[in-house]
Each structure stands twice: as C-alpha cells, then as structure tokens.
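Escalated from tier 1: zinc ion holo job.
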Amino acid sequence: MSLEDYLAQNSATWLKDDGPESDIVISSRVRIARNLRGRIFPMLATDQDKQEILEAAARAAKHSALSKLGPFELFAMRDLSEVDQQVLIEKHLISPGLIESSGGAVLLRPDEEVSIMVNEEDHLRIQCLLPGYQLETTYRLADQLDDGLEEMIDYAFDEEKGYLTACPTNVGTGMRASIMMHLPVLVLTGHINRILTAVTHVGLAVRGIYGEGSDALGNLFQISNQITLGQTEQEIIGNLHGVARQLINHERTARQHLLQTNRVLLEDRVCRSFGILAYARQIDSKEALSRLSDVRLGIDLGIIRGVSAGILKELMVATQPGSLQKAAGQTMTPEERDVRRAALIRDRLRADPSSSLQ
Amino acid sequence: MMCEQCGNRTATVHFTEIVQGEKNEFHLCETCAKEKGYAAYQFMTGAFSVNQLLSGLMNLDPAVKQRAGSSQTRCESCGLTFSQFSQIGRFGCAHCYEAFAPGLNPMLKKIQSSNQHVGKVPKRQGGTIAYRRELTRLRQELQTRIQQEQFEEAARLRDQIRELETRVME
Ligand SMILES: [Zn+2]
Ligand SMILES: [Zn+2]
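Tier 2 regenerated the structure:
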C-alpha cells in the first residue's frame, strides 16, 4: 500500500464502519505507552539514539509475533509533506507531538485500526482505534500488540511503578482508554454538566469542545481514564464501561422523552440544520460540526431518511483543514476552505440519492 | 471575551474539561489554539490537562516543593534537574523515577490512585513478578479460609502455594 492509500478518506475502519451502539458511541480507542530499557527518552535523545529505537521497532514489527498482527508499513515524518502529516493527525493516526519530535515515525496497518508511533514523547505508543463501542476488543488488540513487541524489546519496567513513561501521568499501566460519544440531547436539556461532573469522581476525565456560549461543539465528548497507576487494566476498562453504559442509557431515554414531549422543537432544529448544510455557500468548521451533529441526531431519530449515519464522523474529519487541502490538491486560505467545506458537505448530502426530510 | 493566552484577540475556541470533579476552562483565540496544538486533536487526547495538572501541582503544592529537596537534584543518567522536570513535566529517562523519588512520590499520590503498580507485567522479562503477585494473593486467601475454618479449601490453597513457590525458586 502506498502512503496515498493511508491518506484516502475512507481507508480507516473507524471512519468506514459503524460498530456497536453507534447511535451514541463514535469510536473506542486504547493507547499504550512503552519505553525501551536503558535508553534515554526521546525528549533528550540524540538523532543516533532515535534511529536505533526506530530500527528496533521496525525489526520487531517484521520478526516478532507482531508480524502476525500486521502487515505494518513504516513512515518517517521527515519524508511526509506538511499537508500529509496534517491528514494523519485529523484521522487520529498520529499526534502533533510526533511531528515536532525529530526522528518521529509511525508504523501503520492498512485498516488503520493500529498505529504505533515511534519517538514521540515515549519511545513507543501503541494505538488501537475501532468504530462504535468495543472497548474490550480494542484493549485485547492493544494487549496482543504489546506482547508481540515485548518478544524482541526489553521494556523500561519497575515492579513498583510499572511501565515507566516520560510523563508521570502515564506511569503504571501506560494505558489511556477512551470513548468518543455523541450526546446532543443531554446537552440540549442541560443535564450534561451534572452527569459529567458525577462520572469524573471515579478517576475518569471528560472533555468536550465548546463554541461561543455553552453549547458543546458537535456535542461530542471524550471520556477517558485519568489514573494509570494503582488500578489494573481490567479495572480501568471496567470503570469506563460502567460510565459509558450509564451515559448511553441517559442519552437514549432523554431522546425518547424529548421526542414525545417536544417533537416540533426537535424537528425544527434538525431540519434547519439540514437546510443550512444542503444550501450554504460557505461555512466554518465550528458551525459545520454543530449542524452535522443536528443532522446526525435527525438520522438517529428517523426525522431524516436516506442519509447514512456515518456522515458526522466522515465529514468531521474530511472538513478539517488538512483533509480539505489534500482533496483539493492545493493549499488554501481559511476563507477558501470555508467555501470548499460548504461545497463538500452539499455534495456529500446529495451523494445519498434518496435523502429526504420526514 | 478575550484570549487568555495573548490577551489581544477575541477568544473563539473554548475548551471545558472536568478532571476528577474539577472543571477547567480554556478560552483561546484561533491563533493561540493552533499554537497550543490542533484543537481537535487536543480534544481527542486531552494533552492540555496533563500539563495543566502537573504544573499546577508542582507550582502550588508546598509539600511537593519541600519534599523534592534541592531543585538542583540531578538525574545522573540523563542530566535532567528536578527544577527542569517541574517546568517541562517530562522525565529524561527511566532512572529519573529513582533520582526524583522524594519529590515525585507525594505528587503521584495526588495524580494517581496509589504508588503501587498492580496492572500488567511484561511476559518475557517480567520473570517471576507475576508468580510472586499470585503468591501474595493466594497467601491472603489462605489466611481468610483458615479464619473461616474452611480447612478443605485451605489445604488445597496450601498445595497450590507450594507448587508456585518451587516454580519461583527455579
Ligand atoms: Zn490568543
Ligand atoms: Zn534521567
């Protein structure tokens, strides 16, 4: 596979497929940080050190049990254009930190469910990203990849502190598990803050992007474990699981309740947003995200028919600056991007031929 | 509202995050948000909070400062000093964990749930760690069974413990 295939819009499983509970849960992600024993962490390492780390990782990907979980292809950041780097970030395959670190590289699997960053903040960062709600499957995959690497690599591990990481907020399991959820009605009814504050008392963190005022942009929230030391991987996943189940139930109940008590309000909101997306000639990324959230809710509730539910996450990525410019084959000013974004969304809505409002 | 970073452009990117019951808000202009890293990515991984949490703890918590001893304490393996660590929030090598232990341990108690790793152990290199953990667990269970006078179960556990002990010896 060429780099262009990895940059293509629909090559990633998490963008292509729905997965379980996909009316609420967009994706499940597990990231594991590991370092090599006796080696300086990337922040202070020389180029020569980093090159050796890279070679060790590439060897392990070819010859350990990891190879059975592949194939993997290695891309060095210095060989990639700025736009290509940005697209990989927007598809959540790499982090901005990887670009800043000289000697950064990534091992990618063609389905883009697995990416292993090399020489980011830690020597190795295994990441698994699956669509919908499948936290346990995601963890099992990450765990296998970790075992595979360990066949050939000695990790920096301490019996008391666990896996040693560059930042003490990751030490112990080195694991960060997270789920991205779409919670539009809990936001609309104002219940979200109370619920989210409660869940964070069990060692979890919640994040959202907010626009002007108090509306969460795109109504998207990311729930992840905050604690990595003093809990087992199973306890961490279990905690997250418990909270996710609660949130899914709360959101579903709230949707049904609102539909019964205030259908007109809901339909009006959804249909207005559909109209704007179907006809706008320029739109910024923040407005696009919140309108797409409304449309997605409309699809989930049967108000909009014939538009595929994947439109929210698909366009959430495709309308970001890097992906827009990649598709256009040129660099663009923010104003040019707003025009291009609006055109892309209009085309996407018309690509589902029978789209209609009920 | 003005950008809290540069103070001279209007804040258009608003982040809210709630970590362990504490709410943090970030209000930034587009330019500063970009400089801090891609907003959307930050949202996915929460890179913001980690730094905030750490620097907040180190700057405000007198206990951490005091226990750390001299801020010039240096890791002999990578050369990082404790005061450099408290600015960057990152270690230079695995040995830093030992070198800065006095300052680090009270901090870990605050940001983590304990000081002791109980999760995964590396398969190949972990050697007897996993067995020893299992032994501790079995011995505790044995005590409970004896207290509850469940002697049949206790005998079974004792055999299991012996078998494991020989394996650890090897
Ligand atoms: Zn600013
Ligand atoms: Zn060090």
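The two ends of chain B are 67 Å apart (CA to CA).
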